[in-house]
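Predict structure. Input: Alanine racemase, 426 residues.
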Amino acid sequence: MDAGAVAALAEEVLDWRFKALPPAADGLTVRQYLATGPTLADLGTPLLTLDEGALDHNLRTMARWCADAGMALVPHGKTTMAPALWQAQLHAGSHGITLANLPQLRVARAFGVRRLLLANSLLDPAGLRWLAGELAADADFAFACWVDSVESVRLMDEALRAAGAERPVEVLVELGGPGGRTGARTVDGAVEIADAVRRAPTLRLAGIGGYEGALAHDASEGGLGTVRGYLRSLAELHGRLAGRYAEDAAPVVTAGGSAYFDLVAEELGALPEAFVVLRSGAYLAHDDGFYRGISPLARGAEESGAGGGGALRGALHGWARVVSRPEPQLALLDAGKRDLPFDEGLPEPQLVRGGAELTGTAARITALNDQHAFLRDAGDLAPVGAVLRLGISHPCTAFDKWTLIPVLDDASAAEPKVTGLVRTFF
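Output follows.
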């Protein structure tokens, strides 16, 4: 990764484009603003912040877990789209970065990421022409993407031939499951796709992949059983393709979001002659909602002999001010759908700045409008003007709402200090 490009983000001039920052930051660079020693009190609301201690804990915990499990980590960068955080993940031992579409790939290449996995098919002729140019210009650039049909193989091959591709594009045959997202629906179908790849001169069969998280949404016995069954089909496919893979490197076998990576380790970690890659992305920020409840490190995976270091910590917090108390048990906050995620659960009230703890009380967020949150049953704990810290659920739909996110030294401190500003590119 280009450390200079990441470092140059500190010279970006701040202004009205960055809703996380106050007018006092206008005209200063990131570096100059941080040198003024800002604190949380200097920032307005609504706001989203990252907790430095939690980020560091999660980074180290997941790196250790994967190392102990014997799997490579290629975290899904679409969660944060933050090159500075990608750099931290790579420095902690991640093998590369996973992304989801062409615009995200272009961001990664702009910051010099040299190992990229596209957890998707790339069929756009203009995108394949760009990719062919990137591969030709940089011999150290390693790239792979998915294919899930004979037709997608044909379209890729035609577009790459038209682009005059000099290097073959590595592809992984994607296996899906009934009711899931993309991916061949049967092992036999996936084998047919692999044979089509072998016939395409512009492509190279580098492995197989898939995503178990689309097939279950909880840690019930049924959900875990569905995931295990799918992963065993992926293992079966790997066995069926023995002798068909390109021979100059171990074939990649990749799966794993942030909900079931323990099962990936159990079912795929010991596959013979495979380079097993985990793609978890949400682990870095974690959350105080969906992933807090379903993460393997909250389900006892740290006690199974792989990894350790305890559960992951929620690093993302929303901050919102009470702007209205129109009814005795209703308060309106100045943060809404434009500021905080809501697709995997509503924000949870945690505390009032300089006041009461709200965790464990009856206080709850019951709805979000575009720019307001409905806080109910907080009683006298949240008067007009009070600022609340909110736990959020689902980091993947939090980062995209903010182009610059302040990093706090400790979100639980009496007066948290701003130690960094994370730039995102969505």
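Residues 302 and 310 are 6 Å apart (CA to CA).
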